[in-house]
Structures are given as C-alpha cells and as structure tokens.
Amino acid sequence: MLGFKHSEESRYKISLAMSGSNNPSFGLKGEESPNFGKTHSQTTRKKLSDIQIGKKLSDETRRKISEAIKGKFHSEDSRKKISLALGSTIYLYTLEGELLQSFTSSLTAAESFSCSKDTILKYAQSGKIFKGQYILSLKELSSLSLDFSSSPSD
Q1: Residue 141 near residue 91 (C-beta atoms within 8 A)
Q2: Per the structure, how many domains does the chain have?
Q3: Residues 126-148 pLDDT 10s
C-alpha cells in the first residue's frame, strides 16, 4: 500500500471531526450543493433501486414518518395536478357522437352525475349508453367504436 496509513484511533477521530455540521457539505442545498445539476446514469439509478428492494422500514421509522405527515393535506391546486397526472380523462358524448364535455377524472364526472366513480368507469370502459342519452369513453371519439346495446349490469 502506498502512503501513510492512519491508525484506527486516528481514523475514528477524523471521522468525528468531519461528521455532521463539521462536514464541508453539511446543509448545502440547491445550487450550493456539490451535486447540483448532476444526474445519475440509468445504470446507477438501477443499482440504487435494486439496493432498496426487499428493505423494510423499522416500526420506529414508520411511526416517525406517520407523525411527520399527520395533519398535512394537499392543497386544492396540488390535488388538481395529481388528478391530471394520475386520473383517467372521461369524455362525454351524445348518441350522435358529438363531444359534450371532458372530465379530468372519473371522480369529477361522478360528482357531475351524482353517481359513483366506479359506475362512470364501468360505462366508460364498456362504451354502453349511460342514462339513456350519453356515451362515456376513456378515449376520444375518433378511436371509439360506438356500441348502442344494453347497459352494463350493476
């Protein structure tokens, strides 16, 4: 081995001296962080992901996370953004195929029709006539094949 080899005691003292707030990178965030603007390669991201597989959080950690988020709620704006990102757009058509309205999620469509989101999704997936005058769809009409047979069973 090349160079000077520190003793275990010296290594421990150096470790303590550079820990926490004594670390030169401690508390650096954003543009001040040495890693700012850098991204991991796909290979590195895969390795980091694989390391986490099968790991379980301790009961204490789970309790701490639970305590940290209690009483916190997403704002109305955040909830809309989440709905747009994760929700299924519902298209409302007349029997003639004219688009009447689109809803950002099955829940907003359900609120509009005073029914459950499951009912909305059932009709949207089947393409059956809804309330005798509408067709609900998860796709735009251009890719929708209209089926005017009976309503799905509830």
Answers
A1: yes
A2: 1
A3: 888 999 999 999 888 764 455 45
Q: Which domain holds residue 138?
A: 87-143
| pLDDT tens-digit map of 50-99 | 999 999 999 999 999 999 999 999 998 998 888 778 878 899 999 888 89
Report the run of H or E that residue 123 belongs to, with start and end. helix 117-126
Instruction: Please state the pTM of the whole predicted model.
Output: 0.45
Residue 16 resides in a domain:
no
Q: What is the torsional sign of CA 6, 7, 8, 14?
A: negative
Distance, CA of 136 to CA of 133 (rounded, Å):
10
Q: Give the separation between CA 117 and CA 104, rounded to whole angstroms.
A: 12
Residue 103 belongs to a domain with what CATH number? 1.10.10
Q: In what order do the strands lie in the sheet with 99-103?
A: 99-103, 90-94, 134-137, 129-130
For residue 34, being part of any structural domain is answered with no
Residues in the chain: 154
Rounded CA-CA distance 21/39 in Å is 25
Is 43 domain-assigned? no
- Let me know if residue 136 belongs to a domain: yes
Tell me if 11 sits within 8 A of 4, measured CB to CB: no
Other beta carbons within 10 angstroms of residue 106's beta carbon come to: 24
